[in-house]
Amino acid sequence: MRVYIVAASDSEPDEERRLRWGDYWFKDSLGKAVERLGHELVEDIARAEVLIHLHGYGIERVPDWTYNILWVHSHPSSAERLDMRRYDRAFAESAEFAEHMDIGHLPGASDMQPLERPIEHEAVFVGNAKGHSRPSVDKWLAEHPNGEGLAVWGEGWGWLPEGVWQGLYYPHEQLGELYAATRHVLNDNHADMDRWHFTNPRLYDVAALKGERVPTFGDVARAMLDGVRWQTRVELGCGKVKRPGFIGLDIDPNSDADIVADVRDPLPWADGAVDYIVADNLMEHIGAPFGRVMNECWRVLRPGGRMQVIVPRAPHPAAFQDPEHVRFFTPETFDYLDGGHRRWQLYGSSYGYKPWELIERVVVDDWRIEASLRRPSDG
């Protein structure tokens, strides 16, 4: 499968500074493990079949068309605000936080091997100051005011006692040697990580170097990807330019369709056989059978499967200028499909619409609506 991994360090525009982000190497190690399992790592999300979100921060938009996997390894306070309906699998490094969020528990990992070295440093800290300092460094300095025995690498440490700061960057591939030759590898977490008892990745490295059994990134990759199958993705009304990797259905025999059929007829898939459907500028062409078409999409989607509907927004001229447009949409139209909304309860249900979960609707460039819908997991 084609796998795309996203991490907080992706937001750093400076390539050299990106190497000083801890989760850059976290992503790098997981990516190599994914490739060892025989999957293809891709850099273009449009080509991806699987998305792995290493949560340090949220991402602007979780795609509908990929199989989405979340692993919360830091910043749990912002993870609490995520819409878990966008993810097909979700994990947290902390067992307590996993239970709190009702998601899976997946511990951290290290690929470092046991290593013994003569002690050269009493204490080291590798990481950025993130403001003024870090609690573990402050604690050492409180006991050793002149920084005796301490060596620090990272940004923002120019104020340390003379001889303590060693430079901006310590080569990642040599960290094992450094930690093995250190009596105290200093470590601390963000406050929200401490509250939920997250373990910092640095501690997994130290444990592995001491010969303790810790999960490898291969273990993590297998836990994430085992059982994930190829996605069945369908584009209804695909026209002459079908999305790559999709099964196209269109009424026009001269289109790029794999299946020439009328979307107003029963769809040619078994119940729950499809993972994702996109209908891009199609539904405005559907007249009276709109409800029947949406119910057919609901039927063929697996429970938890998603659908994206893209339509022109009324009263923008784009909604009316095409003489073949027979149905008009505002953002509120999708309330009638949302089983949790009063408009579905009062009206949509009486129209015979199946209850969807409305995950998101956005107006793009003022003229079109992009709505993300989900068949309920228990539906």
Describe the protein.
Helix 2 packs across helix 9. The strands form three sheets. Strands 13-12-11-14-15-17-16 form a seven-stranded mixed beta sheet. Strands 2-1-3-4-5-6 form a six-stranded parallel beta sheet, sandwiched between helices. Strand 16 and strand 17 form a beta hairpin. It has 379 residues and is an alpha/beta fold. The chain has eleven helices and 17 strands. It has three domains: 103 residues, Rossmann fold (3-Layer(aba) Sandwich), CATH 3.40.50; 90 residues, no CATH class; 142 residues, 3-Layer(aba) Sandwich (Rossmann fold), CATH 3.40.50.150. The radius of gyration is 26 Å and the shape is elongated. The mean pLDDT is 95. The longest helix is centred in the N-terminal third of the chain and has 15 residues.
Largest sheet: 7 strands, mixed
The proportion of residues forming helix, as a percent range, comes to 10-25%
Going by CATH, the homologous superfamily of the largest domain would be Vaccinia Virus protein VP39
For the termini, the CA-CA separation is 28 Å
Topology:
Elements: E1 2-6, H1 15-18, H2 22-36, E2 40-41, E3 50-55, E4 67-72, H3 76-79, E5 89-92, H4 95-101, E6 104-105, E7 121-126, H5 135-143, E8 150-153, E9 165-167, H6 175-180, E10 182-185, H7 191-195, H8 201-209, H9 217-225, E11 233-236, E12 247-250, E13 259-260, E14 274-280, H10 290-300, E15 301-312, H11 342-348, E16 357-364, E17 368-374
Parallel strand pairs: 1-2, 1-3, 3-4, 4-5, 5-6, 7-8, 7-10, 8-9, 11-12, 11-14, 12-13, 14-15
Antiparallel strand pairs: 15-17, 16-17
Helix pairs in contact: 2-9
